[in-house]
């Protein structure tokens, strides 16, 4: 069971996973050594699964942000999943969902023309509903 200090540690690490244990300890009112032990315990228990970076897709030139609800015709999804593997530069997340579709695909594209080409190729495998992000 997590206590309030563990939750504070997780909150601070989610803001800056590169923070030193000493700095983190100061924020959660523990010594650096005690903080390090807490973080190690959170890792060992699988609460912290890993550390990552957040990439600014706009600065990489991927300015068109789309959510695509995928509707497959049957239970055989492999053609769609194989197609996605060839489109990795565009795909941020592919969530299997319940509700209006089978998957919710989050993508970024450098242009509307590349989005259009992606959708033409996608439509060979599945039907879809497109939503474009206007603003975060």
From TrEMBL:
Q: Which InterPro entries match?
A: AsnC-type_HTH_dom, Dimeric_a/b-barrel, Tscrpt_reg_AsnC-like, Tscrpt_reg_AsnC/Lrp_C, WH-like_DNA-bd_sf, WH_DNA-bd_sf
User: In its UniProt entry, what is this protein called?
Assistant: Lrp/AsnC family transcriptional regulator
Q: Name one Pfam family in it.
A: AsnC_trans_reg
The HTH asnC-type domain, residue ranges = 2-63
Gene3D superfamilies, per database record: 3.30.70.920, Winged helix-like DNA-binding domain superfamily/Winged helix DNA-binding domain (1.10.10.10)
What keywords does the record list, in alphabetical order?
DNA-binding, Transcription, Transcription regulation
Q: Which PROSITE patterns match?
A: HTH_ASNC_2
SUPFAM superfamilies attached to this UniProt entry: Dimeric alpha+beta barrel (SSF54909), Winged helix' DNA-binding domain (SSF46785)
